[in-house]
Specification:
With 340 residues, the chain is α+β, with helices and mostly antiparallel strands. The chain contains seven helices and ten strands. The radius of gyration is 24 Å and the shape is globular.
Length: 340
């Protein structure tokens, strides 16, 4: 009986233990892709909710002031520039931050607001706004952008990033290349304006057919086809111009597209090829003082966009740029086609 009890209490042999460990390792290896996919699905859902809430703030602004916020965007450097995101702060539960900002000064101003001892606009815009961030972006929470025209201090990573941006219009060069409709190539008829106070009546193509915001993540670092190719550094002009949620230059300017490798502009590819052209010199020879960003997200297969009617849709990165241009314009009377 004693011998039988000893046999029943016998533990695993080394071989059995190794087999169990190997089985557990295989199961973990099989489960990891599913876990990662589930996490990305959750992040994509959160991104969709964020961008929808931002559009809701646009509409609440319209209800209160009878127009949508736009961008104060003079062509000259060293001028006061205010982005729509700043005007939306009271509508996204950030009124306390909004009250501290001096709207008579540029976002990069380093003189005290309200006299000696007041906060600096430059420091206030270092505040992270989670609603402006996509959870899938690898740069979330970091302060990455700065003023390109500030001689002192030189460009530095100082203001908080945002991943959502809109268009002013469509590049006429795309029509010259035969890539978009003639009706689409108006540089100033997108969902965001720097010259007009847009209202719902401005969107004659229909609010459900006009993009307000899409993702342009990772700036001012440069990404191409899922790879980080340039890391922005203080004082270095080799970066994408834009990224800070407070900067009008973070808008996508005009739909331009690129080649498949993200090196030649304009071109037929418009989503997830590159997050922007390298600045190099400021003002840029083509974009001037505007941003150099492009549509880009860290979601597999496409990007999240919100339309003026408040609907969010996932735009496939294989979308034809002609169809995309029709969605960028607000009043060109093109015939929109299926794009999902």
């Amino acid at each position: 009986m004693s011998l039988l009890n000893k046999r029943r209490r016998r533990g695993f042999t080394l071989v059995e233990l190794l087999v169990v460990i190997a089985i557990i390792g295989i199961l973990v290896g099989l489960l990891m892709p599913a876990i990662q996919a589930a996490r990305e699905a959750a992040r994509r859902m959160s991104c969709s909710n964020n961008i929808r809430q931002v559009e809701l703030a646009f509409q609440n602004h319209h209800s209160a002031l009878k127009h949508f916020p736009g961008n104060v965007r003079p062509l000259a450097t060293n001028t006061v520039r205010v982005r729509w995101a700043t005007h939306l702060l009271p509508y996204i539960e950030q009124n306390s931050l909004y009250q501290k900002i001096d709207l008579t000064k540029n976002w990069s101003d380093v003189t005290p607001n309200g006299g000696t001892g007041g906060p600096l606009n430059y420091d206030l815009f270092g505040t992270r706004i989670s609603l402006f961030e996509c959870p899938s972006s690898p740069n979330g929470g970091q302060i990455l952008d700065g003023a390109p025209d500030a001689p002192s201090p030189v460009w530095q990573q100082r203001v908080a990033n945002g991943d959502y941006a809109g268009f002013y219009g469509v590049d006429p060069q795309l029509f010259t290349l035969g890539l978009v409709d003639k009706e689409s190539v108006i540089p100033a008829n997108g969902g965001i304006s720097k010259t007009e106070k847009l209202t719902f009546a401005s969107f004659t193509d229909g609010s459900s057919n006009t993009i307000r915001l899409v993702e342009s993540a990772g700036r001012p670092h440069s990404y191409r086809n899922g790879k980080l190719v340039v890391t922005s550094k203080a004082g270095d002009p080799n970066r994408v111009n834009g990224g800070g949620w407070c900067r009008p230059a973070s808008e996508l300017n005009i739909l331009r597209g690129s080649s498949g490798d993200g090196l030649t502009f304009p071109g037929p590819r418009s989503i997830n090829v590159t997050n922007g052209e390298i600045l190099g010199t400021y003002p840029h020879p083509y974009y001037g003082t505007d941003g150099t960003g492009q549509i880009y997200a860290f979601h597999a297969g496409g990007v999240t966009a919100v339309f003026v009617d408040g609907s969010t849709r996932f735009l496939s990165q294989s979308i034809d740029i002609r169809s995309l241009a029709r969605l960028v314009t607000r009043n060109a009377s093109e015939v929109s086609s299926d794009f999902e």
